[in-house]
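Journal club side-thread
Mid-discussion, someone asked how the predicted structure for our own chain would compare to the paper's figures. Pasting it here so we can look after the session.
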Amino acid sequence: MQEQGRAERGGAVLGLLLAAFSFSLMTVCVKGAGDRLPVAEVVLARALVSLGLSWWLVRRAAINPWGQRRRLLALRGLLGSVALACVYGAVTRLPLATATLLQYLYPTFTALLAWLSLGELLSRRMLLACGCGWLGVLVVAQGTSPAMAGLTVWHSLFHPLAWSGSPAVIGLLLGLLGALLTALAYVSVRELGRSEHPLVIVFWFPLMALPLTLPWVLLDPVLPNGIELLWLLGVGLFTQLGQIGLTHGLTQLPAARATTIGYAQVLFAAFWGWLLFGESISSTTALGALLILTAALLSR
């Protein structure tokens, strides 16, 4: 029995590493496709692949795909879709490691939102996590855009001219918004988990992403070429592989340990950024990364 338990835990660790590896490759595909294709088109391609697979899984499990609380399911799908578009937008404008790091602010956002909306307690440890996380964002912002150094970071973030003048500033804002919306989506998932099957919640994500992104794509369609079609296919494929590995790992390991292993995605993203896109990691970005990952660990 002990050997079987070790084997299961070992398989769970491998599954989580596979998930982190797959999600990092997904960001590579997003960066490759997003060089010319609009973000809405990338999200639409991802939604088409996920919707087909999710529908097949729901039907295979003989579950009613429409659920019980459809308004909240739709809201969760909309939040997740916009969050995904923000994350993809950040990936196309920032180094892979930096964009991935910003996404890891969602645990602190989730804790704050759960405190406000669900009445969950906010401990001193969580307050410390929030402080570390936001300090990390300021440090990463300083390393990403020298114009944002010091106290001028707030001016650069909120001044209207910054939006049109610096892709790095826009990428940072999109990354922060993506983390916030991810947290909102996660809070809604917590509430939906009381009444809905997980497969139903997953199914509504691409179901809402499809009508949300299709009009944007039709307004300004860009026909993908051969390599871009492969990038788009990779976005859907690696996302699904990541979901499979993540689900397997979370069913076999405690959530805290599983989350820690998932941080390997940052290392993978840094490696792909260096190998494929010539991205380097400055000491400032490394310090910001340490602060954000510390915040994520404290948020467990």
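Post-session note: The chain is about 80% helix and 0% strand.
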